[in-house]
Amino acid sequence: MALNVIVLGPPGAGNGTQAERFARLRRIPKISTGDILREAAHEGTEFGLRAKAIMDRGELVGDEVIVGIVRERLERPDALGGFVLDGFPRTVAQAVALDAIMDPRGPLIVIEIAVGEAELVRRLGSRLICADCGHNAGSFDKAGPGIADKVQTEPSGCARCGGPLVLRADDSGAVVLERLKVYHKQTEPLVEYYRSRPTFCSIDGAQPPDRVAADLAAAIEVASSEAGAYRGPSR
Q1: In sequence order, which residues have a C-beta less than 8 Å from that of residue 23 and are 6 or more positions away?
Q2: Please, are residues 187 and 91 in contact by the beta-carbon 8 Å criterion?
Q3: Is the sign of the CA dihedral 130, 214, 115, 35 positive or negative?
């Protein structure tokens, strides 16, 4: 049976890192909204061209186009044996559309990585990314004065491409709180949408990364054993 996984969580919970780690371990694709938007636009697919036109106008890509791009990506041969979704769905409407896509393919395993708001603010305020490829390079805890200037000019810091590491422009205190507010309003209802399913599980994301990874793998193992008897959401 295919292993179809969604990893949910607020900004700073480590969703992307843990999703990528698990996908690599199980040799299935990790699919993130940002990546497939860029790929679809570059490859000139029907929905990719529509998304590019919208983004070029500086507008947000709506549910119809996002869902279309996800559908295109999930139809590729490498995703037929399973996948890990990160960053999609973001709304209940997108989740309903995903259920329709998945109807003939088997149930979704949904894992929430839960982290308290104070810890999220601390993490996001010290997060570094690569200026060239956008890879999340982790954080600098208890850094001394001037570290922000240093990382912005330090060459060959990224483990993936060697690019310079910088602080994210949208990780200032006020912006972080606003991003969390948006998450609670728009995305947190997804947890309630999925919570009653036997293939849903919430894990503690405030632990060390290796412990979170172990709990994630264990939760997916338990959920996959429940998936065989689960017939999907009621229509």
Answers
A1: 29, 30, 83, 84
A2: yes
A3: positive
The four Cα atoms 201, 205, 207, 213 give a dihedral, to 10 degrees, of 60
Residue identified by tokens 């264990």 is 218
Cβ proximity of 213 and 18 under 8 Å: yes
166 in Cβ contact with 131 (< 8 Å): yes
CB-based contact 54:65 (threshold 8 Å): yes
pLDDT tens per residue, range 176-209? 788 888 888 887 888 999 999 999 999 999 999 9
CB within 8 Å of 205: residues ≥ 6 apart: 9, 13, 14, 113, 114, 115, 212
Amino acid at 193: Y
- Chain center to CA of 230: 24
Asked if 15 contacts 9 with a C-beta cutoff of 8 angstroms, the reply is yes
- Amino acid at site 25: L
Banded model confidence at residue 28, pLDDT cuts 50, 70, 90: very high
Q: Domains in the chain, please, with CATH?
A: 3-115+187-227 (3.40.50.300)
* Best CA proximity match to 115, nearest among 21, 8, 189, 199: 8
Q: What's the length of the chain?
A: 235
Instruction: Please tell me whether residue 7 adopts helix, strand or coil conformation.
Output: strand
The Cα–Cα gap between 225 and 194 comes to 17
Q: Which two tokens stand for residue 230?
A: 């689960």
